[in-house]
């Protein structure tokens, strides 16, 4: 089977590209070379370049290894932490038109 990349909507590709750019900037701020980060993450330099470009075909595990090397793994926990839409949908299901049952003495 050929190794193909998933096709993303343009908005999602822009987000992934921005994530890659943020990873690259974090690496540069730490004054680490691409060779150093790739070696520590257990990936090839070409894979790191793809991550920094926001390539959608790179596995999530490789992204996580690079994020860990940069010391940013806790930032990943913020993803979907405050699910505002989900909470609104959940709250909408809680609203009922029935009255609460009366207390029995």
From TrEMBL:
<dbReference type="InterPro" id="IPR001387">
    <property type="entry name" value="Cro/C1-type_HTH"/>
</dbReference>
<protein>
    <submittedName>
        <fullName>Helix-turn-helix domain-containing protein</fullName>
    </submittedName>
</protein>
<dbReference type="Pfam" id="PF12844">
    <property type="entry name" value="HTH_19"/>
</dbReference>
<dbReference type="InterPro" id="IPR010982">
    <property type="entry name" value="Lambda_DNA-bd_dom_sf"/>
</dbReference>
<feature type="domain" description="HTH cro/C1-type">
    <location>
        <begin position="23"/>
        <end position="77"/>
    </location>
</feature>
């Amino acid at each position: 089977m050929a190794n193909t990349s998933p096709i993303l909507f343009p908005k999602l590709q822009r987000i992934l590209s921005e994530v890659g750019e943020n990873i690259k900037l974090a690496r540069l701020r730490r004054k680490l070379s691409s060779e150093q980060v790739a070696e520590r993450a257990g990936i090839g330099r070409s894979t790191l370049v793809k991550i920094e470009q926001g390539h959608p075909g790179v596995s999530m595990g490789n992204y996580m290894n690079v994020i860990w090397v940069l010391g940013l793994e806790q930032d990943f926990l913020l993803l979907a932490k405050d699910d505002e839409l989900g909470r609104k949908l959940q709250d909408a299901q809680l609203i009922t038109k029935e009255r609460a049952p009366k207390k029995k003495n």
